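Researcher:
Attend to token order:
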Amino acid sequence: MRVRARAVGRLMRRFLAIAIAAGGVCVVAPAARGQSPADDVAVQARLDDLFQQTLRNPADLDATFRFAEASTAAGDYEAAIGALERILFFNSQLARVHLELGILYFRLGSYAIAREHLAKAISESDVPPEIRQRVGEFLAEADRRLSRHQFDAMIRLGMRYQTNANVGPNGSTGRFFGVDFDLPSDSRRQADWNGFGQGMLRYVYDLQRQSGESIETNVQAYYAAQIRLPRYNLGLIEVDTGPRLLLHPTPWPRTVIRPYAIGGFAGLGDVPYLSTWGGGVSLDAPAYFGTHGEFRFEHRRREFYNTSVNPDVAGQSGGLTLISGTLRRRLDTILPGLSAMVRGTLGESYARQTFYEFTLYQIDAGLTWEVDPPFVRLPAKATIAATLTRIWTDYRTPNPLYDPTIVRRDREWRFVLGVDVPITSRVGGFAQLVYANVDSNLSNFAYTNLAVSFGPSIRF
């Protein structure tokens, strides 16, 4: 246990060092998106000027609207709500104001108040049909979220083609006991199709507190059946559950903490392969310059099971600790609907056999664009997402099965491009491309793989 505690402590120290550097990234993030701190000052100056105009002439509805729109764009929903509420003081029947207030209160999670304003927004007979339909969707969602029991579910069914479905090495040789051998044909890279199903279920039990605290449970399940290589059929299920609690609103506004328990099971080739259980804690909070931050700590026990195809995997059984930090920011000033994400992860694994232990460093950077396609009217925005990942994996000691003198080092690039297109409010389609390239100092583990998948998705 002392060794494990030292490993976790070492991981925390490494993460702290990187987090200090990441703080600099937080500060310079606006420059990377074409908006410097000076731009933020200019935005705030414009907001102050508009606010002063509303104070000098409270009956100037145009100035109040401009202030509300600018506050909404800056993410200050409370200020926008205050401005719009002042407009209703002069004219309580403005449907546009009720609509904007309903959406703003919805974003803040005040669904009962949102529902009141949205209902007033469509109370007149001359409301355009498309507005009435859109508001009806908001009202239905508000009713659902006002329930103490809330369910969200999504199912994806599809086909996937991979150029290296068995994760075979790039070359025709493998290293064993320090000597290179020709690999049998079934151990070399092989292309294959599979059919897969993926399901996600989220259940939220509302604690009925003004702060919106709840208990959240998430279930994820996946199964892929290979066409030519059934020994690589993959199935898994994972469940996490825990409360989502608001920290003290004065020193940490809108900061949410969620401790959770986690458990899962995976099968490979339709036989048991891995079980895992553990727990973690996540912390979500607004950061500098409108950037949203998340910190996560997770530790789990992993138990691997030997099979006829994988007779030596039980030695990997042990613990895995992961620490990650994520920054997200909307980039609407560059392109409406665009947002960026960067994540850093540190991992520490210990195992029954030390040559399976490793330290992992991972960086993810991604862009997401929510867009209305030209020439096509959709019930919601389509989403295009791209993520680039770099992973460094350093093992602790040499594995004598491969080479008693070489400590394994893997370096991986991964690129993911995905598109989700809604067809109706509940049915859509998706397509995804994944490219992975792993460079390793042991030829057994150097490989490339290109995967393309597509199919329908259904939301409940």
Notes: Residues 2-32+148-459 form a domain with the Porin fold (CATH 2.40.160.40). Residues 17-38 have pLDDT under 50 and may be disordered. The longest strand covers residues 271-286. Residues 95 and 121 are 4 Å apart (CA to CA).
